Request: fold
Amino acid sequence: MAQHARNPDQTRESLLLAAFEEIYHQGFRQASLDNILRRTGVTKGALYHHFPNKMALGYAVVDEIIVPHGETRWRRLGDESLNPIDTLIEIGEEEPFPFARDVKLGCPINNLAQEMAGIDAGFQERLNRFLDRWRNAIEFALQRGQRAGQVRHDIDPREVAAFMVGAFEGAYGLAKCAGSEEVLETCLNGLKSYANSLRAMEATP
Reply:
């Protein structure tokens, strides 16, 4: 316990990662603070020192775990030296979560959106802002690709970005319902084929 007391930043990060995993497995409303404390070895007093209540902990999971993890991946879409189609495909093939995914549990973003966005304004605002930034990153990358002659000019980057985010989240939803890694891979392969279809003819490898 003394180690946690001497390292408040480490304690906070440990609590957030444990909370992320607990919420991913159980959903926010069923997530157990006792389970989080058992995982981390942190006292209840230390938990409430960092987070005054469960809702504040949930918001912090979105703000400090989910958003930074997503932004780290999307940041490459702004690199003008990279082909945006190649980058989109690479990102889609990477592990999207802070730890190994469980296809039977779906996507934590989609799970939280389905569970909490309709009943809590704080979650709705955070998750909607997250998804907006994801769509915007794709849209701006496609616009840049059009200017560089890498992306077809007959597509609407805004519409394509919205479709791709929806398709990605839908892939995890279908795979969760089926409990099947094969379903997920089939969906993601379809999304990869769609991304390749966006290449300008002269930029097709």
